[in-house]
Write a structure and sequence with these properties.
- The chain is α+β, with helices and mostly antiparallel strands and 79 residues long.
Length: 79
């Protein structure tokens, strides 16, 4: 859960995973949703399918951190 009081929004992130064998090949074995709410009233404003962002955000953070923090001789990164 996060909030941005000055912009009057709150964000809740939910992720649900299942065994990879339960989904077709090539499809993610988890789904994600973000609920954006009015910070002052709690009323929902939007429900966003977050499966794509939940996949890409960690990749982006890893790339940025590796470029800025890693030893240039490193060959792997782990978070």
């Amino acid at each position: 859960l996060g909030c941005w009081k000055e912009k009057n929004i709150g964000i809740f992130h939910n992720i649900m995973g299942v065994p990879a064998a339960n989904v077709p090949a090539g499809m993610p074995h988890y789904t994600s949703v973000q609920i954006v709410s009015d910070y002052s009233t709690g009323r929902p404003l939007a429900c966003i399918d977050g499966t794509y962002t939940s996949t890409m955000l960690p990749v982006g953070v890893t790339i940025i951190a590796a470029k800025r923090l890693a030893n240039p001789q490193s060959k792997t990164v782990t978070f």
